[in-house]
Design a protein that fits this description.
It is built from six helices and six strands, in the order E-E-H-H-E-E-E-E-H-H-H-H. The protein is an alpha+beta fold. The protein has a single domain, classed as Transferase(Phosphotransferase) domain 1 (Transferase(Phosphotransferase), domain 1, Orthogonal Bundle). A hairpin with an 8-residue loop joins strand 4 and strand 5. Helix 2 runs antiparallel to helix 4.
Amino acid sequence: MNFYEIHETEKLFVIVTEFLYGKQLLKRISNQKILEEAIIKKIIGSLLQSLVYIHSRGIMHRDLKPENIVFTSNDSSYDIKIIDFGLASLIDEEEYLYKRCGTPGFVAPEIIKLKDGQHYNELCDLFSVGVIFYILLIGKQPFKSSNYKKVLKLNKDCKVDFFRPELSGYSTEAIDLLQ
């Protein structure tokens, strides 16, 4: 999302960004349930291109999830923008402001398992893209539970079922990429 300017008052900051007319990816998924593979391919391709750009600028997002991906318009099937860089960090940062961050179910296991003195890199964003890809294909999260701690444990253990019946209608290339 393009950032234009910021205004500061005594009580708040006002950030001016471009206005995106489309819905969040989460809302699009919940409204449509099943997306065609060609559309999923374009969404994931756009998301990966966006990551190449931000990573080339030395930034890792660290909180990619469907709520942080917005379509540029309601007519678009795949033109997206990444939003909410509140947990973003520089890739080569010596000390992260928030070491363990992200949304359970989407956060890379290396962030959950992080010990003092350890670092991770922009590959943590690719893990999140994989979770989003899984949701787009299957319509369900790979680490699902109503219990926060259970989701975090499932996410940390990272045991993903790649042989679900819902995947049988997709191409070999899509399944290979997911794995």
